[in-house]
Amino acid sequence: MLAEPGHYDYAPxxxxxxxxxxxxxxxxxxxxxxxxxxxxxxxxxxRKTPWPxxxxxxxxxxxxxxxxxxxxxxxxxxxxxxxVRGSVSLNVAVCNHFPEIIERCCELGWELFSHGTxxxxxxxxxxxxxxxxxxxxxxxxxxxxxxxxxxGWLTPAITNDETTxxxxxxxxxxxxxxxxxxxxxxxxxxRNGRLISVPYSLEVNDVPLFQMRNTPVERYTSMVKAQFxxxxxxxxxxxxxxCLPLHPYLTGQPQRIAALxxxxxxxxxxxxVWLATGREIAAWYTExxxxxxSKWLAAGTPGGRx
Length: 306
Hints:
Blueprint: E1 27-35, H1 58-81, E2 87-90, H2 93-97, H3 99-107, E3 111-114, H4 128-146, E4 152-153, H5 164-170, E5 175-176, E6 186-187, E7 196-197, H6 206-212, H7 217-234, E8 240-246, H8 248-251, H9 257-268, E9 273-275, H10 278-288, H11 290-299
Parallel strand pairs: 1-2, 1-8, 1-9, 2-3, 4-5, 5-7
Antiparallel strand pairs: 6-7
């Protein structure tokens, strides 16, 4: 049994090496639209059932399909108005099923990274070779449809196990979102290669807020603003990261899209904000801070985290 994940050391928030983002920005803000595709009758997984109702669950399938038919396009237009690019957590099957979406993402200069093949195919109980095959397919598909390299990763439904981060590093993935443990990037402890964790969020993620907690739209907007305001203030001392994860079938709904519009207007009105992609954050941190933080972590602290 694992006592803890083992992929990162304890790192007190105060006393860390100082991070400065490009141009002296105090906060890196990135948006992660999860553009997903679900199978109506997915293969069985012994540890997770994708649908709450008996298969085929046409109701919930069609709810998610709304995002690709309508919600994505509405969200993309709002983001473009504010000059905010997306870093797409992409089920790569979307490339085959809905190539128009990929074309629009590329027109807007969005990054594509992998969220697996379908959001109904989990990594639970996959061997390392099976995980590598999914990563290889993601790399080839994204390159074919967009010309982009595969730099980032979010395991489908965040079903990574204790080997996944090792496999990602060995397959050349540069950053992972599978851990939501910090407000700054952090080196990930892997057996070979190099991997960093870029902050992702469950706290301002629209799935927990809208789907699980039925959060009112006005409350969502105030939470996103509060998240930004606090991290922006803290970024005056050392650069922080704010990720806003979005799902087109939720935030792209007509009654919610104004909340995204208002939140983005608030963010872009501030100076010292780096509107980045996940790839850009990872590259800057890797070049300037990975080794600095790794040495600091290895040295331990007076509190004795080692």
